[in-house]
Amino acid sequence: MRITEANWFEVEAYLATDDRAVLPLGSTEQHAHLSLSVDSILSEKVAADAAEPLGIPVFPAVAYGLTPYFMGFPGTVSLKLATYAALVRDILDSLHATGFRRVLIVNGHGGNSPVQPVCAEWMEAHPGARCRFHDWWRAPRTWATVQEIDPVASHASWMENFPWTRLPGRALPETRKPFVDFDRLRDRNAAGVRELIGDGNYGGLYQRPDADTDRLWAVAVEETRTLLEGDWS
Which protein family is named in the record (predicted)? Predict the structure, then answer.
């Protein structure tokens, strides 16, 4: 169940028999011709689709993350690492205080990965609690499916283009963009990143047939659900 569609009585009743929860992490950053909220939309939806048949609560996606390299694109919002680490820790503390003991973090933004040690620190501070950090798009089976469909895939390309991340009435380029030089990205400030990547797509087609992305989505949901159902001992 999505927390946005539940009241506290229902959550308390759930906690009488289960202690799992899902926390999606997203970001607000440029995604070329797609929504600035792609990472939040995808992390929350894959979490909700995975958890729905299990009845596990899914909390609203944290809409802001770590994305300083995209600050040259208007609409992007980036938190400082210390701020973000404190935010994630406070959320986990709140979940623990109200009865949750097993938390799956479904991350939708690669830039958020530096907060993974927060999960380890939190478990050390809360014996018996468990926290898993899941980058949904690059989990083994999901990434293998991306490679099978089209290995030229990256940020803001077809692999993030779903009906729920497209913007109505906006035309998409029909070309296949060459991969950017990732080595050159590593030592650029935000202005330099924008100059290097242009519209924001890192490389690949902007859109593929829905049959391809439907296949990718089904694998991602199943792989995420497996983590929720798996052995937490």
Answer: Belongs to the creatininase superfamily.
Cα three-residue angle 208-212-217, rounded to 5 degrees: 115
Q: Which of 65, 64, 59, 63 is nearest to 23 (CA)?
A: 59
Q: Are strands 176-177 and 204-205 parallel, antiparallel or unpaired?
A: antiparallel
Q: Which residues are CB-neighbours of 232 under 8 A, at least 6 positions away?
A: 20, 102, 130
Split the chain (233 residues) into runs of 10 and give each run's mean pLDDT: 96 98 98 98 98 98 98 98 98 98 98 95 96 97 98 96 96 93 89 95 97 98 96 87
Contact residues for 52 (Cβ-Cβ < 8 A; gap 6+): 1
Give the type of residue at 229: E
Is 57:21 a contact under the CB 8 Å cutoff? yes
Q: How many other CB atoms are there within 10 angstroms of residue 4's CB atom? A: 10
Q: How many CB atoms lie within 10 A of CB 72?
A: 18
Structure tokens belonging to residue 165 = 């991340």
| Domains of the chain by start residue, with CATH | 3-229 (3.40.50.10310)
Q: Answer yes or no: are the C-beta atoms of 191 and 72 closer than 8 Å.
A: yes
Name the helix (H) or strand (E) containing 70.
Answer: none
Strands (E), 62-197: 102-107, 130-135, 176-177
